[in-house]
From TrEMBL:
Name this polypeptide is given: Lipoprotein
Native organism: Paracoccus maritimus
Length: 138
């Protein structure tokens, strides 16, 4: 089998499986806000438990690596040589940030109330998606 055909045979089922079932896509599409609020609430609760928050920043650093140089010799043939050189790369650093516990508790209370308000609607969408797109074994 040609290489491209073999690759397609291997990758295509994986790509299709990654898309999820129609039921999964329906649930995901209709519960996005609920999942976002839940994630934010968990983050705020973690901040309160730790006493600080985490933030990230991008830092540019340089690193010694091998650079590839292509040139033509006197006969016109392409030649490749490798030489050491410095290249920039971007690194992500996590660092601690102090929090205001009172403000963080207010944020937690607001997110908890929002999650409770979205909970019934999200559950209704999940039931509707399961009804509209039944899967085997359910």
């Amino acid at each position: 089998m040609p290489r491209n055909t073999t690759l397609a045979v291997i990758v295509l089922p994986l790509a299709l499986a990654a898309c999820g079932t129609p039921q999964d896509r329906c649930i995901s599409r209709h519960t996005g806000e609920y999942r976002t609020v839940s994630r934010l609430l968990a983050e705020v609760e973690g901040n309160l438990a730790r006493g600080y928050a985490w933030e990230e920043r991008q830092v540019v650093r340089d690193r010694l690596t091998q650079c590839r140089d292509v040139y033509r010799d006197k006969d016109g043939n392409a030649q490749v040589s490798y030489t050491p050189c410095w290249r920039d790369y971007v690194d992500t650093e996590r660092y601690r940030v102090p929090i205001d516990p009172a403000a963080e508790q207010r944020k937690r209370d607001g997110l908890a109330a929002r999650k409770a308000a979205l909970s019934d609607r999200a559950a209704a969408y999940v039931r509707a998606c399961k009804t509209a797109f039944p899967e085997d074994g359910q």
